[in-house]
């Protein structure tokens, strides 16, 4: 007894959104939920992990989690699924990895302690002064 194989037609996934469209989506999400002190850092040439980092602060653990959730919601509307989300339970520092853009949402004291902006921009000021 032989049965005929069923052919399932699948669509290839759309090309992933560009880094610029991801950045625009992240900007809209953090603005929508009123994140504080939002900073974008271009890390191309400094790491192979991502092209851009966005760092934002929330006023409480609930706000930090809400900002991260909003970023994920906006990214999904764009057709981008996060590669990973870390820190949601404690919500003092939530990382949302969107591939070309990694978003860090932190409580102000945690952000001050880890000083990611300084870590990823060290040497940039000297280069800017040399060029000027």
Keywords summarizing the entry:
132 residues, alpha+beta, Beta Polymerase, domain 2, five-stranded mixed beta sheet, 5 helices, 5 strands, 20% strand
Quick recap of the structure?
The protein has helices at 19-32, 61-78, 108-114, 116-121, 124-131; strands spanning 36-42, 52-57, 84-86, 93-97, 101-106. By secondary structure, the chain is of the alpha+beta class.
Structure characterization notes:
By secondary structure, this protein is α+β, with helices and mostly antiparallel strands. It has a single domain, classed as Beta Polymerase, domain 2 (2-Layer Sandwich). It contains 5 helices and 5 strands. Helix 1 crosses helix 2 (61-78). The protein is globular and about 65 Å long.
**How many DSSP E strands?**
5
CATH class value = Alpha Beta
Instruction: Give me the CATH fold name.
Output: Beta Polymerase, domain 2
Q: Give the helix/strand class.
A: alpha+beta
Lay out the secondary structure.
Elements: H1 19-32, E1 36-42, E2 52-57, H2 61-78, E3 84-86, E4 93-97, E5 101-106, H3 108-114, H4 116-121, H5 124-131
Parallel strand pairs: 2-5
Antiparallel strand pairs: 1-2, 3-4, 4-5
Helix pairs in contact: 1-2
């Amino acid at each position: 007894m032989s049965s005929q194989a069923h052919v399932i037609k699948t669509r290839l996934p759309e090309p992933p959104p560009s880094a610029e469209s991801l950045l625009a989506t992240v900007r809209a999400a953090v603005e929508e939920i009123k994140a504080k002190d939002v900073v974008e850092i271009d890390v191309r040439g400094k790491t192979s992990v991502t092209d851009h980092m966005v760092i934002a602060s929330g006023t409480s653990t609930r706000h930090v989690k809400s900002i991260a959730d909003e970023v994920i919601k906006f990214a999904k509307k764009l057709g981008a699924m996060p590669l990973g989300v870390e820190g949601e339970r404690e919500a003092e520092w939530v990382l949302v990895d969107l591939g070309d853009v990694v978003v860090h949402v932190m409580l102000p004291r945690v952000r001050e302690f880890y000083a990611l902006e300084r870590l990823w921009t060290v040497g940039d000021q000297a280069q800017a002064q040399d060029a000027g």
